[in-house]
Amino acid sequence: MNVDILGVKFDNVTLPQAVSRALALIEKRGGHYAVTANAEILLNTEYNAHARLALTSADLTLADGISIVRAAKRLGHPLKERVAGIDFAQSLMQACTGKRFFLLGAKDGVAEAAGERLAEKYGIVISGTQHGYYTDENAVLEKIRESEADVLFVCLGSPRQEIFMLDNRDKVGGCFMAGLGGCLDVWSGRMKRAPKIFIALKLEWLYRLIRQPSRLGRVVKLRHFTPAIKRQRRAEKH
């Protein structure tokens, strides 16, 4: 069952169920991809047709944001749980010992550093890396194909990563893709994820704001999300 939030259908799954679906897509091959969307991504793609198509065309759409979970409940179609992108990716790697992964995104050197840590921790094979500041996308796609990766983590930020997956799903050699924002920075040790207490209290966004005050503008923009959900609720009632 899917839950429609502002026109984007989220898969109503637990973390283990999300991983199970991803594993099936990895075995199936074919350039399938997952998006991990939050309220900010929904708002940012509302008037960007290409980015919105990238969201709605995903094979797996996960609720990476407590605002999405709360909105679903308010609409009367509660989601089973929040499935954060970083938790999804880490659980997927844990289930993919020996599989080949390609890491795309972040600044030069970050993907390599993350790859070394991930390979050691999860027993996966890092078959290739590429920073996110490239200028020749065709060369990057060739590099991905030559890596023979089973999984491609696309960490380019939204909506760039979603558009990349939509436009190149037939050009990456059949690997499964997942859009994961700033995960490479965390895995490389360049940034720290929120302490468990913040995550448990559903305040991970607050920790990130404290660590990065420049995010304030992005947080303020979210004031438009609740009114949009109210409009959807009224529309569904009528």
Estimated helix fraction: 40-55%
Straight-line distance between termini:
22 Å
Radius of gyration: 17 Å
* Structural class determined from secondary elements: alpha/beta
The secondary-structure element order is EEHEHHEHHEHEHEHEHHHHH
Largest sheet: 6 strands, parallel
Question: Mind explaining what this structure looks like?
Answer:
- The protein has 238 residues and is an alpha/beta fold.
- 49% of the residues lie in helices and 16% in strands.
- It is built from 13 helices and eight strands.
- The protein has helices spanning 15-28, 39-44, 49-56, 66-74, 85-94, 110-122, 137-147, 160-168, 183-187, 196-200, 204-211, 216-221, 225-237, and strands at residues 2-5, 8-11, 33-37, 60-63, 100-105, 125-130, 151-155, 176-179.
- Strands 4-3-8-7-5-6 form a six-stranded parallel sheet, sandwiched between helices. Strands 1-2 form a two-stranded antiparallel sheet.
- Strand 1 and strand 2 form a beta hairpin.
- The protein is globular.
- It starts with a strand and ends with a helix.
- The model has no long low-confidence stretch (mean pLDDT 91).
